[in-house]
Amino acid sequence: MRPLLGSLFLVFLLGVGFSLLQMISHRPASARFVFGLPNRPSAGREWLLGAALGWGMVVFAVLPIALAGKLHVSLWTDLRVLRLTLISLATIAVASLAEEIIFRGYPFRCLIDAIGPVGATIAMSVLFGLSSAVQHGATRPGIFLAMFSGAVFCMSWLRTHGLWLAWGMRFAWAASMGVLFGLPVRGTLDYATLIQSTAMGHIWLTGGEYGPDGTNFMGFALLLGLIVLVRATRDYAWDYAHDPIIAAGYPMDVPPPAAHAAMEQAQQASSPALVQILPSTPQTRSVETEPKP
């Protein structure tokens, strides 16, 4: 329970701290805005889409280990283990939200306003990679892939302007790797309660003690996930990320220039009055009707 409570307290501190910063900048906003979780009809679908993407990328990276016969699995069925598994899932849900708020939430939006989306994405991706460097068993490929994954998660914000998709993707990523497969999640085995797995083999295949986050196949998974992410969020990008289209054109009620108005008045004063000549033939008859003699 301690990791779960610690994650909840971290989310609380992040909400209070970022709300104070928002008030200091004289732009008070709601807690949803600060957290980056806007209230909109597609929020649930975005979260599920992110969960599907996160699960798919982890499966793509773990499947080669299983096919090579390097994955040895142990299953625990004690009732106490089931309770710990539920606590682990709850901890992952809150911890993944806190992580996304830190790296793709309020600070990321402030960086976008300051240096643009490209610079903000590079800066946050590098910071995310450096934060992974202090994890147990971290390797150079793992740090590089952490930066790459940071860019993928930043793209989820840029496409949706919300953390729903990134939160679902981060939750499914950690839950699939730690709970479902029982493998290390960036060097930690805290979530391997129901299933515990040991991956034997070359580090480029298994990631070693750092886990599948540092494997070569994870790079291909991230690249494929980025492509799917961009294609799957086209509607969200149009609805939430594009600037609204504002009708524009030439105003039709603008008065003419003074010089132009003076020229028209002078022309009317110097020209004779126009006389309209009406036709002598009645205009009510049909074309086919012959005129009377």
Describe the structure.
The chain has one domain. 35% of the residues are buried. It is built from eleven helices and two strands. Strands 1-2 form a two-stranded antiparallel ribbon. It has helices at residues 2-24, 31-35, 43-67, 79-104, 106-133, 140-160, 164-180, 203-206, 216-232, 234-241, 258-270, and strands spanning 71-75, 195-199. It is mainly α and 293 residues long.
Structural class: mainly alpha
N to C succession of SSEs: HHHEHHHHEHHHH
**Strand count, sense and closure of the main sheet?**
2 strands, antiparallel
How much of the polypeptide forms β-strand, as a percent range? under 5%
Round the Cα radius of gyration to an integer and report it: 32 Å
Query: Runs with pLDDT <50, length 5+?
Result: none
In total, the number of domains comes to: 1
**Cross-sheet strand order for the largest sheet:** 1-2
Please state the overall shape, judged from the principal axes of the Cα atoms.
Answer: elongated
In total, the number of strands is 2
Keywords:
two-stranded antiparallel ribbon; mainly alpha; 293 residues
A few lines on this structure:
This protein has helices spanning 2-24, 31-35, 43-67, 79-104, 106-133, 140-160, 164-180, 203-206, 216-232, 234-241, 258-270; strands at 71-75, 195-199. With 293 residues, the chain is mostly helical. It has one domain.
